[in-house]
Amino acid sequence: MNQRLDATTPILGSAPSVGRTTKERPVMLGDYQILGLLARGGTGGVYLAAHVRTQLRVAIKMLDPHWRKHDDVVNRMLAEHEVASSVSHIGLLEIHSAEQMWDGTPYLVMELLDGENLGELVERGTIVMNAIAAIGAQIADAVATLHDSGIIHCDLKPDNVFVLYAPGLNGWPRIKVIDYGVSQREHTRDGSVIAGTPSCMPPEQWRGEPIAKSDVYSLGCVLYWMVTGAPPFLGPLPQLMMSHTSALPARPSTIRDLPAELERIIMRALAKDPAMRPTMHEIARDLAAFAAQYPTTQEIQLLEAKAS
């Protein structure tokens, strides 16, 4: 079945639970009323909320209370606000403030995104080539702004890219890069392995030496995933580490027909030697040029039709 861009599609693909009787006391968090749960993660949840005076709707990311004494988890959340406060780009998630509950549990007040993460989109079907280029170009342009500020994202993956129900490059959906929890300042590494997602981690990050071009490799993995439906390497953690540090992935053209220029962009990004990878600005430029060859119509089809 074709998937059509639709601005009326509910957040995260399903409407949040907002049902409350008039006898129930509203759940308040500072100046915000909690309306429902949007998503759950390993250390907390993201909630739909409304400002009591302005009725502005936001997303609130909150740690589960039992994590509040884990300094590493708390610091990761606070670091997200620090990163968001230091850069500004239409493709980067806005975090309005970092607050604390009465018991010290931190939470973030963030812009509310209307769309779905890229991982969900990939799971539903095969993304058309020009959409891949347009989405990739926007990711690269956003992350290039982080790099210009000396920040490495360190965890680019499909689930950390939000595809919005709003037009972006060439009419294709606009994107937001999210989750700055493991982002690093350049030249501050201590040699320990930087937490990330093994399916998208470059060789140098496994060695605890991430640099800006580490994000380029991770974007190469994301592009490969969008083209083929799977990351460049699969397997248990030790196998993934060996593959990312020393093995070459199958060329995506052996899995799916694609233009040679797009394959060249992907394989350059996946070079083991960071010096052989382009910069994020170059990736953004090349993908935008590729996407410009394919103008869109008002009826945007993100996924290819399944064969009957």
Question: Would you mind describing this structure in some detail?
Answer:
The chain is α+β, with helices and mostly antiparallel strands. It has two domains: 101 residues, Phosphorylase Kinase, domain 1 (2-Layer Sandwich); 177 residues, Transferase(Phosphotransferase), domain 1 (Orthogonal Bundle). The protein has a six-stranded antiparallel sheet, with helices on one face. Strands 7-9-10 form a three-stranded antiparallel sheet. A hairpin with a 5-residue loop joins strand 3 and strand 4. Helix 3 packs antiparallel against helix 5. The chain is globular, with a radius of gyration of 20 Å. It starts with 27 loop residues before the first strand and ends in a 17-residue tail after the last helix. The N terminus is likely disordered.
Q: What's the alpha carbon Rg, rounded to whole Å?
A: 20 Å
Structural class: alpha+beta
The level 1 CATH classification of the largest domain is Mainly Alpha
Spell out the helices and strands N to C.
EEEEHEEEHHEEEEHHHHH
Tally of strands? 11
CATH architecture of the largest domain: Orthogonal Bundle
Task: Provide the CATH superfamily of the largest domain.
Answer: Transferase(Phosphotransferase) domain 1
Number of domains: 2
How do you describe this structure in short?
The chain has eight helices and eleven strands. It is of the alpha+beta class and 308 residues long.
